[in-house]
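Changelog note: in this version the structure field was regenerated for every chain. One regenerated record is shown below for reference.
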Amino acid sequence: MLAWLLEPWPWYVSGPLIGLAVPILLLLTGKNLGISSSLRHIGAACRPNSKLPYLSKNYSWREHTGTLIFVLGVLIGGFVGNYLLSAEPGNFIPAFYASPLGVVGLFAGGILIGFGTRYAGGCTSGHTIMGISALNLSSLVATVFFFVGGLLSTWFILPLFIP
């Protein structure tokens, strides 16, 4: 009966489900879908008296607890999907990244992604799922360049590190 949960879902099922999350979120909460702002919320919660304007005491992270709950749900959902609903659970981090070069690559990639999401005004989910559905031209441009960057990294940069 539940065997269909153990197999990857086809794009024509999972795509519309992801797409329906946008209007449902807007209707129920009036908020946009996105995850990159959660780092700011966590930082403001951990450092409520910070001198950084980005985490200033005038910023109320409590107004954004829904985003933090969403991030927690993504983490729990990933764990449940991988370990409880998968016929063959995969590793979250491939063996290559356990090496010193892999750790440096993850660290550098994390910094670049963090800088890029703040510079672009949002992450891939925020721009691609939410921004394009809201017909934002800047989100369309950002999404095109997310894909261009991913393709360039996959075909030209990653082969330099993985034999």
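Spot check on this record: The chain has a mean pLDDT of 81. The chain has two domains: 1-92, 96-163.
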